[in-house]
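User: Before I run my own analysis I want an independent prediction to cross-check against. Here's the chain; please return only the structure tokens and, at the end, one sentence I can use as a sanity check.
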Amino acid sequence: MTSISILIETPQGSRVLAADTPREAALKAESVIATVAQTELPVPVWVAGANFDMADRLMNYLADVQMERVLADVG
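Assistant: Structure tokens:
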């Protein structure tokens, strides 16, 4: 039973991910984000799940993951 869906718009096209747990969803999404060139970040991400708070936390986490990559060479 899939309880979390993630849509990531990459320059190469849309990716739809499905997972049963927030941890699994985060790992899958991070692996997709890792394939995007740093100069093309951030990319749009949408998270849907049975629990709004969980989806919101996951969205914020993935935004942070992208921002860390964007800022990696700064500083």
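Sanity check: The first strand starts at residue 4 and ends at 10.
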